[in-house]
Amino acid sequence: MTPVLELKEITKQFPGVLANDHIDLKLEKGEILALLGENGAGKSTLMNILYGLYQPDGGTIFINGQQINVHSSIDAIKAGIGMVHQHFMLIPVFTVTDNVMLGEESLILGDILDRKTAAARIMEISKQFNLNVDPNAMVGDLPVGVQQRVEIIKLLYRDANILIFDEPTAVLTPQEADELFKIMRSLTDKGKSIIFITHKLREVLEYSDRIMVIRRGRVIGETTPDKADQEKLAEMMVGRAVNLNQEKNKAKKGEVVLQVQDLVVADSTKKITVHGISFTLHSGEILGIAGVQGNGQTELEEAVTGMREFESGEIQISGKSIRKIKPREFVEAGGAHVPEDRQRDGLILSFPVEDNLMLCTYYKPPFSKNGILDRREIRKNAENLISAFDVRTPSPLTDVGTLSGGNQQKVIVARELSRDNRLIVASQPTRGLDVGSIEYIHGQLLKKRDEGCGILLISSELDEIMELSDRILVMYKGEAIVTVDTEAVSKSEIGLYMAGISQQSVSGSETVAEKSSTGE
What we know:
Blueprint: E1 5-14, E2 17-27, E3 32-37, H1 43-50, E4 58-63, E5 66-68, H2 73-78, E6 81-84, H3 96-101, E7 107-108, E8 112-113, H4 115-128, H5 144-157, E9 162-166, H6 174-189, E10 193-198, H7 201-207, E11 210-215, E12 218-223, H8 230-238, E13 256-266, E14 272-282, E15 286-290, H9 297-304, E16 312-317, E17 320-322, H10 327-332, E18 335-338, H11 342-346, H12 353-356, E19 368-369, E20 372-373, H13 375-388, H14 405-417, E21 423-427, H15 435-450, E22 454-458, H16 462-468, E23 471-476, E24 479-485, H17 491-498, H18 503-508, H19 510-518
Parallel strand pairs: 3-10, 3-11, 6-9, 9-10, 15-22, 15-23, 18-21, 21-22
Antiparallel strand pairs: 1-2, 1-4, 4-5, 7-8, 11-12, 13-14, 13-16, 16-17, 19-20, 23-24
């Protein structure tokens, strides 16, 4: 049987990097193929070639046995290929219908957009594939998971039969991720074929039909979920055994480094999203903030780090009360910040890697003397951190915006954790990272904790919260509904708290937990 897609001997070289080294790939009709590999392994490059965003240096592409030339995304779309990028290509102030129509506009009376017909087709697609999207909704008002469905509708609207998902769950909650994979399976049940790029081994084993592993631009091997486990896949990706469960010493709590009392924070629309939250963080401990994304964690993170003014309440860093702290003052107080949105808040994408690695302290020695940057020290710092944190970049002078999402994240983590900190606020610190990098970052966070740093860990990855935290605070609708010692609570109990079930209900009734786990 002829595969719906076949890539043969695909090769692509960038300055200093052989991104794809004679890669072969086959995709069958109705199949979900997982493309697995480290950050910078060449996965996204390969898919960008297939979608026409890059031109290969060698190799051929076949659709249903026929060789095609893909010089642009227009050629890919005409060939029935569609791609959902890691960072969505949507215009927030446009409706779903307007976003879907872009580049595929239908007109009436010569120059009037036929939104009615387009909306009707979007509704038809939405119902057919259980996407549940309102064509008239404003995209900026939609949750991230629903925005991703809009991206899928864009592909189906253009009759795509081969769908590429680049890190599809990187910005989704566990619940949204599960919903996405249900949608992906409904697509393959109706004859579509899917390639999805991911680092998350559980997803690969649970949802794919076949797994292909790429390491440093080459295909290392293929397997199927029934013949592999997480340890085997991790070793194939990284080339060595990976410790998927970090050993954690007992916390040695010291003085208070962060005190938050009755904090009230509003979002950019002036809506209150944090309602009188209070907690204390000590040196030598990790306090995990758990919760479904969108329950006030972002605004809490921004208030503590000086990126957002708060309405009322008090924040103290190392005993000093702050009201209108700025990000630089947060850094000067011994703070480090790994932001939730790496591209918006953590990097200057048009700056080289070496400059991004010293952004927070560029005005201090050794990087600056008498107001003049010392390029030799900046380069030395960059080379050391690139090596220590395994940042895959052709050069320290490469613009950070050209790196993969995971390597961009490594740049931020390297910059923030390499300083002498008293307080670290880390929001989604391993989002988009491969297992080897996650192992390293988790180890670094625990090392910082053992050195006496207080760490506020905000993560939508419940496994990460459970593994690293000494105590867990669960946020629901902007409130702290419970704070518990990690050793005294189970993952399922935290999941119930995240769903808004009270502490009394969780601790007093096993029936509640049973109903929640079955979806009743």
